[in-house]
Specification:
about 525 residues, alpha/beta, 6-stranded mixed β-sheet, two-stranded parallel sheet, about 55% helix, disordered N terminus, DUF4192, DUF4192 domain-containing protein
Length: about 525
Amino acid sequence: MSDPETSNLDAAGQFLANIPAIVGFYPDEAVILLHVRPGDDGLDRVGVTMRLGLASLAADPAESGKTVAGPLRTQPAGTVIAVVVSHLDDADAELPLRAEIDALASAITEAGHRVRAVFFVPEFREGSWWRSYYDRSGTAGIMPDPTASLVALASADSGVTIQPSRQAIEDLFRLASTDEQERIARATRIAAAREQETPEPLAKRIEAFDAAVAAAIDGELPSSDEEIANLIASFSSPLFRDACVLPAHGRHPERQRVQLLLHLYRLAPLPERREISAVLAVGYYLLGEYLYAEIATRQVTIPTLHAAIVARNVQRAINPYAHRGSFAEYFRSTRSAVERTRTVGSESERHPRLLTLVDEAKRQIRAERDHGDRRALNDRVNRVDAVVKAWSAGWRAQSDEELAALVAAVASAPVGLAVLVPPAGLATEGSRAMLFRYLLEVSPLDYASDVAAALAFAEYAQGNFEAGRAATLAIDPPSPLSEKMRARALDPSGGDLTVIIANLARTERRNLLHGAAD
């Protein structure tokens, strides 16, 4: 390994004093790795930071090398500075774990980065001594006050608290007392029942959450059971869950927004806590607080897609803002759609007769399905196909009954799945998406989420990704199919969901067609 670049010993000491503020806590019995690369202005920028326990390094240096090499391989070429923190009273004593540090340095080099320096400090406090592991020229010094470092001062101005230890960060996620949880659970059940009976529009619920964020910025977290319960109950909606992560205007969550989520997480009953902990992980991840994000993912008792993606991306040190179509953009688009999202039950029915007719048509389809009447079900599929074919010639429904039959077909299994795709041998028609869009405009809200899902699929199948995503955000609560497609937009790595759904739809078409012929 080359000698460390520490010609300015004062500068080296000042750099080391910044480390607690960089990682967010005062490390102990660990090695801290900092990936450094030049910024656009030519100045060095600290990027990914990692912590590795000294006990783990001593027990298995090879495995420890693999642990740090993985995230480093995702980073642009740069240099790495390592800092070993361990209690050692004698400044002249032999530094510990030299062979293990050499093995770790080799793993870093193999990952494509140059080891710039390896320092040892017994603790992070003013007046503590520090030394270089490769001390060929007496490279050592005294550490200035970490609480007065540039990064610490900047963190304080931003409202960031540097925790005394990693355990102190873990303790922030400790749940409230059992009595508090039970009290809030009762209030949440009341709030949820009230919301189910008289739903508020999604925009109003987000407005209430933003108001709580504004109060948090002024130093006041919600304290009344009713206010806390109303906020927690809103997390039963997946669109609310994803829209509350970001402010109306801005790419990053305010720190107080994440603090509010943490406050609600500690008090929430289990079903809502699962959703809150998932978006809490998202919020920390978008803030660049990778350690907090990783801890938050471990609080999710039943795995969620959000938490799984955050855990994977944090492990790989993937920037959530790295590219267009990024993880962060998904939450930005969800927030931007709030004002246009219609909430089931929050609006008076504009066409009550149509709702009655759709209800009746769905009962008929359910009876046909229960009795195995595939001929009747296949006729309904053929009727939708005929309308799709006639659409380009200017077809529009001539009666409420005709319109109700179409809405019911799209909103009912198994017909709704079969009509997502055209008859065998035909490509997906643009007119199919146009019909679904028309039906979404006129559909009773009780069934609009299923129609919105059909429209989203048709748009995605034609490569209209923005229009498809907009359709999944049109109705709150979304249908299960809409949620699946929104999930795929969040995590494209799982393959093309539209292909999977199309194959299922084609299978359903064949089953109905063959059943009708029997």
